[in-house]
Design a protein that fits this description.
This protein is an alpha+beta fold. The protein contains 22 helices and twelve strands. The longest helix is centred in the first third of the chain and has 32 residues.
Length: 562
């Protein structure tokens, strides 16, 4: 039965295929890596069939009776529950990986992202097939660290903050989980699942919290482990991390909501015989699951963002699953886990298309939020102008930018001279309770922020498509044969038109082939003086010595006259 070891190894191989190699072949390697993941899925299906018709598969690389079971507790115990979870994880992961190869095609960190997806699948498979509680906890911890890395775009402030909140909150829950493992080993002397269940059933142990109040060891252990499950499955009041981690790429959420977040439900079902010994823990699980289901569903109805709607939906569904565990309906909870995983993976893989369509409609779904942002900007500009006038500062406020959720506000202004705005910054910081930055801009940037229509009748280039301002000189206007009247070659900002630069290089290249005005040339029609140039048609107006005035092509020039 050692073939089951190929399942996690294939996923690890897929991660290495994506990660190792030159960057110019990354797309090819990503397509190749899909085959090991598909093979792992086929292996999981085969494993499910084997354990369904035969007995569970047990592979251990340690002696369960030695101390090595705590130091190097690597082993695999695959029963029907593990096999079902392995099939679900590998099946969904194969779809997510294939989808991601196209979804992240142009992302510069595509290799890291795809490798993390494969490695996360490897960790999930090892976790659900763990032979003991210590190995399960080790891979449980690795999964918590991977949640931070899977946020992907750590350059985005909100993404980084959400990833840090997730990491911090899960550490609290995992500390309780670890305490439960330590207590279980201290009471029963083993962390092997089957032996742990047998000893807990045969030897009921109770602790005295204080005189007159006792608690059974099974209740204390399961309550601590349940806190760990609450964290991973986003149960009230440890649910805050999930809606704050929705900035990651859509396929990550498909994996998170279809696989990772089910870890809490799997943990309870894996330890179902132990949880069944404590009616108190089951009652707590029922109450927590019910509250989470109600809160998740009600908060979902108040959202106008599709990702947050699906996030709170997941919280509610996980609440239902924990509630089913609290009722002792563990088989029903597993069925709910599988059905929700398949459903939510499909929804998240398609919500990117829905978001794209929604953004094309100007009135759905963020019109109220846009109006609110515009009012906030207008109010901030008004207060800044009033305070600047009160302080007698000769400046013109032209724009406001709210950053990091309003924690930082940048005011853009123009002025003829340098402005001492220290007192203004103090007053604005006191007014808005945020970090204030004053940024002086030039005339061109002012026009870019204010907007308008150019002399061509179209929106200003700097507003519609021009990313940066290139140097523009009067020489460009001369080369293009334009009038040097400032009113005709200047834009709304009062500076030279940016569009003069667009064809300046073309005109400069063409002018190299044309004689200068006033120079003398020899042609087949005689010798004469260049009066005018037509750069685009590459022709010259020439006044010949015999009084003729002709337009000739550059090719007709024989030589330049001395």
């Amino acid at each position: 039965m050692s073939f089951v070891l190929l399942i996690p190894l294939l996923l690890l191989a897929a991660a290495l295929i994506v990660l190792i190699g030159p960057d110019d072949t990354r797309n090819f390697r990503a397509k190749i890596a899909a085959y090991p993941i598909g093979a792992a899925c086929c292996g999981a299906i085969g494993t499910l069939y084997v354990v369904a018709v035969q007995e569970p598969i047990s592979i251990r690389f340690y002696d369960p009776g030695s101390v090595a079971s705590l130091i190097f507790p690597i082993g695999f115990y695959i029963d029907r529950l593990s096999a079902i979870m392995m099939t679900l994880i590998t099946g969904v992961s194969a779809l997510i990986f294939v989808y991601s190869t196209g979804y992240m095609y142009q992302d510069r960190h595509m290799r890291r992202y795809l490798a993390l997806i494969c490695f996360t699948d490897f960790v999930l498979i090892c976790m659900v097939s763990s032979a003991n509680l210590m190995m399960l906890f080790l891979f449980w911890q690795i999964l918590s660290y991977l949640l931070y890395l899977l946020a992907h775009n750590h350059e985005h402030a909100a993404t980084l903050k959400g990833a840090f909140n997730t990491f911090t909150l899960l550490r609290v829950a995992d500390a309780a989980f670890l305490a439960g493992i330590v207590l279980a080993y201290g009471v029963y002397g083993t962390l092997e699942f089957q032996e742990l269940f047998a000893r807990a059933t045969e030897r009921p142990v109770a602790f005295s919290l204080w005189p007159g109040i006792d608690i059974s060891a099974a209740t204390a252990i399961t309550l601590l482990i349940f806190v760990g499950a609450m964290g991973k499955s986003a149960q009230f009041p440890l649910h805050f991390w999930l809606p704050r981690s929705l900035y990651a790429p859509t396929p990550v959420h498909a994996l998170l909501h279809a696989g990772i977040i089910n870890a809490g439900g799997f943990l309870i079902n894996r330890l179902a015989p132990l949880f069944g010994l404590s009616s108190t823990t089951l009652h707590v699980a029922f109450v927590v699951g019910t509250l989470t289901a109600v809160l998740g569903a009600s908060m979902m109805l108040a959202q106008n963002d599709i990702k947050k709607t699906l996030g709170f939906s997941t919280i509610g569904q996980m609440g239902y699953m924990i509630m089913e565990c609290g009722l002792g309906a563990f088989s029903l909870a597993v069925f709910h886990l599988i059905a929700h995983g398949l459903f939510k993976a499909t929804v998240f893989l398609n919500c990117g298309n829905v978001i794209h369509k929604a953004r094309q409609e100007p009135h759905v779904p963020h019109v109220d939020q846009q109006e609110e942002e515009e009012k906030k900007v207008a109010e901030a500009m008004k207060k800044c102008k009033e305070k600047a006038e009160h302080l007698g500062l000769p400046m013109k406020v032209v724009g406001v930018d709210f950053q990091s959720g309003g924690e930082k506000i940048t005011f853009f202004f123009t002025a003829e001279t340098r402005i001492n705005f220290r007192e203004l910054v103090k007053q604005l910081a006191s007014e808005f309770h945020a970090r204030i930055e004053m940024r002086q801009i030039g005339a061109r940037n002012e026009a870019k922020m204010m907007g308008g229509v150019g002399c061509c009748g179209l929106p200003l280039c700097c507003v519609s498509f021009l990313p940066d301002f290139e140097p523009v000189t009067i020489r460009m206007a001369k080369d293009q044969g334009l009038s040097l009247d400032p009113t005709k070659i200047s834009g709304l900002c009062g500076r030279l038109l940016c569009c003069l630069e667009y064809e300046a290089s073309t005109y400069s290249e063409f002018l190299k082939d044309l004689p200068k005005c006033g120079s003398r040339i020899v042609t087949s029609s005689g010798e004469g003086k260049v009066i005018k140039q037509n750069v685009l048609s590459k022709t010259l107006l020439v006044a010949f010595d015999d009084g003729r005035l002709l337009t000739i092509k550059v090719e007709e020039i024989k030589e330049k006259a001395p």
